[in-house]
Amino acid sequence: MASGSGRKRKAKEIEKLLDSFQERIIDLELENQYLSERVKLLEEENRQSRLKIDDERREKREQIETNDALVKINLALEKENGRWSRSYAVVLAKLKDVTNGNPSSIEGLEDYCALASISQISGVPKGAEVALHVQPDLACIRFRRDSNMGRFELGSP
Fold first, then answer.
1. Is the pTM of this model over 0.70?
2. I want to staple 81 with a disulfide (CB 3.0 to 4.6 A). Which of 7, 85, 117, 141 is the partner?
């Protein structure tokens, strides 16, 4: 009889150990699930971060290209047209940006030109009209000064 109660006690101890192991397995499975979700979140954060960095690099590259275009246009205008034509360099350099690379589109050009200050156009005689052709892939911008304000129009190259 003593051996029978010893077996029952051993069985209960083994059963407790099994329960303890099962609880530990469940805890580990939950921890693994949490860590898997955390890894997914970190991977998504990493992907978003890389996209943001790529966007920033692209914007910097575009800004450099715009600045290069502005310098080239400034030099071309200084050589070709003299004193007051230089005012249009900023508008010409921005033409590709505001027309989304399509020089035949005028959308956005008026908004940009509205920002042109009077000082940029003050050297242009009243009633004067200027057409500047800078590069074959850029459209021509015509400028007409009627009074104190001027008007920019997009023309074909």
1. no
2. 85
Residue-level pLDDT at 60: 80
Ordered strands of the 140-145 beta sheet = 129-132, 140-145, 150-155
Render 20-75 in DSSP notation, one character per residue. HHHHHHHHHHHHHHHHHHHHHHHHHHHHHHHHHHHHHHHHHHHHHHHHHHHHHHHH
**Which positions of the chain have pLDDT values less than 50?**
1, 73, 75-157
| Phi and psi, residue 150, nearest 5° | -125, 170
Q: How many CB atoms lie within 10 A of CB 8?
A: 10
Q: How many CB atoms lie within 10 A of CB 47?
A: 10
DSSP 3-state assignment of 151?
Answer: strand
The 3-state DSSP class for residue 135 equals: coil
pLDDT of residue 7: 86
CB 143 within 8 Å of CB 130: yes
SS3 141: strand
Its sign, for the CA torsion 49, 55, 58, 60, is negative
| Residue ranges covered by each domain of the chain | 2-155
